[in-house]
Design a protein that fits this description.
The protein is mostly helical and 287 residues long. It has one domain: MetI-like (MetI-like fold). The protein is built from 13 helices and no strands. Helix 4 packs across helix 7 and helix 10 packs antiparallel against helix 13.
Length: 287
């Protein structure tokens, strides 16, 4: 009877998990082996033809490079800034609650609102960056229209939004550390940097692993800001994988090819998560 009661409690969550996670994943994998059907031409099995087309797609490789550069820029930067902010607001500083709220505020804003806010910074001539640069004689620059700067602009905006979210996890982890450890280190004459490097940082590794996995997933699933800022331009210089999947599925109506791209994206994220666990798990100290 107890087992039946337990399964009944799990059933609602299991239905949602299967219906909105596992079934769509399996259906997407299944669709990737078929052609896109139309009213006059039904879908047919094509095997690995969609994957062969993906390998020969220059836009896919460009978008993949963009996303890897974007991830490499945002993940370590967001984590480092989040850790520094958590250490800062964990100390006894004046107006600590106000500082914490200020750091966390960007997190609660919708991505569309954040994109519109940063559009005010990046707009040529009338944007805040160009207005500030004009005070020192700098020329106006189209930050989102230049292929050499557009991806960096998106990365800065993403770090600004996500760092406060990751800060909350580090702050909770710092507040759970026993204060006796720091007191003992002070008695022994350890510097703050030595204490952080040898004690605090190793004890924060479980949180770092959790934040790292989430930051990796976030860097490949952000798409809202592209609708407002660049729409993947100029010339796909800011296009990311998830937005490219959206374009293929809903602009070009190649749903089978979009399924193929989705399978590749899911496989990449799973591989990255496994590698992160294998490389970092051995350095994690659980208490």
């Amino acid at each position: 009877m107890r087992n039946v009661y337990g399964w009944l409690l799990l059933t609602p969550a299991a239905i949602l998990l299967i219906g909105f996670t596992h079934y769509p994943a399996v259906a997407t994998l299944y669709d990737s082996f078929f052609s896109t059907g139309t009213v006059v031409r039904p879908s047919r099995f094509v095997g690995l033809a969609n994957y062969a087309a993906l390998a020969d797609d220059p836009i896919f490789w460009q978008v993949l490079r963009n996303n890897l550069y974007f991830a490499a820029a945002t993940i370590p930067t967001s984590i480092a800034i989040a850790m520094l902010m958590a250490i800062w607001v964990n100390d006894r500083l004046p107006a600590r609650a106000l500082v914490r709220m200020s750091y966390f505020t960007p997190t609660i804003l919708p991505m569309v609102a954040v994109a519109n806010l940063w559009l005010f910074f990046y707009t040529p001539q009338i944007g805040l960056i160009d207005k500030f640069g004009a005070l020192f004689g700098a020329a106006s620059h189209n930050w989102l229209g230049d292929p050499s700067t557009v991806l960096a602009c998106l990365a800065v905006m993403t770090v600004w939004k996500e760092a406060g979210f990751f800060m909350i996890f580090y702050l909770a982890a710092l507040q759970s550390l026993p204060p006796e450890i720091e007191e003992a280190a002070k008695i022994e004459g350890a510097s703050r940097w030595y204490f952080f490097r040898r004690v605090t940082f190793p004890l924060l590794m479980p949180t770092t692993l959790f934040v790292l996995v989430n930051a990796t997933i976030n860097s490949f699933k952000l798409v809202d800001h592209l609708f407002i800022l660049t729409k993947g331009g100029p010339d796909n210089a800011s296009n990311l994988l998830l937005y490219y999947i959206y374009q293929v599925a809903f602009s070009f109506f190649e749903t089978s090819y979009a399924s193929t791209l989705t399978v590749v994206l899911l496989a990449m994220l799973a591989a990255m998560a496994i590698v992160q666990f294998l490389l970092i798990e051995k350095r994690v100290h659980y208490r």
